[in-house]
Amino acid sequence: MPDVKRTVKIITEQHVIGKPSGVEGFPMRSWNIRLVLVNETTGEDVQANLFEKATYKLHPTFGDRETQVIKRPPFKIQEEGWGEFDMRIIVSAIDKGGDHELLHDLNFQKERYEAEHKITFKNPKANLLERLKESGSVAGEENGVKSKRGDESAKKKRRSEKGVDMERLADSLQRLGEEDLLQVVQMVHDNKTADTYTKNDVEQGEFHVDLYTLPDSLVRMLWDFCVEKLGS
């Protein structure tokens, strides 16, 4: 599965409140921040349901409230203060999709302002992939069907175009030794395209690749490598 990008929008709202700040020239303010996704197709704001939590890292002067974890969309935080500062917001994707850090400038120039951040999800798993589809298209899929997993006739056509027996290539790759397989993985990483489907399962110590999504030059390269190592 190719990497998938999404846009996270940080919405900040603030206003002056009737409480003393203790600092002349800096009135006390109430402010809040919430997170939404931008639908890549329509441009509309949608629920940020790709994430299981958002961790806000505030200024140290907030004391025991410096780190706050919000576990439900829109991951809204509500606070009071008089000072502007830079904060970190770490959003944690569902389905072990990783942590993504957003840097945010809390300022009081406008009562409401927005900031957009691009996030890249690398080889998203099934549950995360389904959520990603709700906020835009996913490369390599059409109408919910993986185009790279097309019908058998399409695969045979691609196989003949490459001039390589793909089933035989797959069998040869499985018979390679560990050191040779490491070279194969490196070759795939170095020569893959945006259409190439790979999955690196670190927990299981496995690397998966769909041979039918490889560019012709890489297929030929792998074929020649197997012939060199195993013979014709």
Summary?
This protein is of the alpha+beta class and 232 residues long. The protein contains five helices and 13 strands. α4 runs antiparallel to α5.
Number of alpha- plus pi-helical segments? 5
Overall geometry: elongated
From the alpha carbons, calculate the radius of gyration and give it in angstroms.
24 Å
User: Which percent band covers the strand fraction?
Assistant: 25-35%
Characterize the biggest β-sheet. 5 strands, antiparallel
Order of helices and strands: EEEEEEEEEHEEHHHEEH
Q: How many strand segments?
A: 13
- The chain-level structural class is alpha+beta
Helix content: 10-25%
Give me some keywords for this one.
elongated; 13 strands; four-stranded antiparallel β-sheet; 232 residues; alpha+beta; five-stranded antiparallel β-sheet
Report on this structure.
The protein is an alpha+beta fold and 232 residues long. The protein has five helices and 13 strands. It has helices at residues 126-133, 152-162, 166-174, 178-191, 216-230; strands at 4-16, 29-38, 45-46, 51-57, 67-70, 77-81, 85-93, 99-106, 112-121, 141-142, 145-146, 198-201, 206-209. Strands 1, 2, 3, 6 and 9 form a five-stranded antiparallel β-sheet that branches. A hairpin with a 5-residue loop joins strand 7 (85-93) and strand 8 (99-106). Helix 4 (178-191) runs antiparallel to helix 5. It is elongated and about 85 Å long. The model is unreliable at 142-152 (pLDDT under 50).
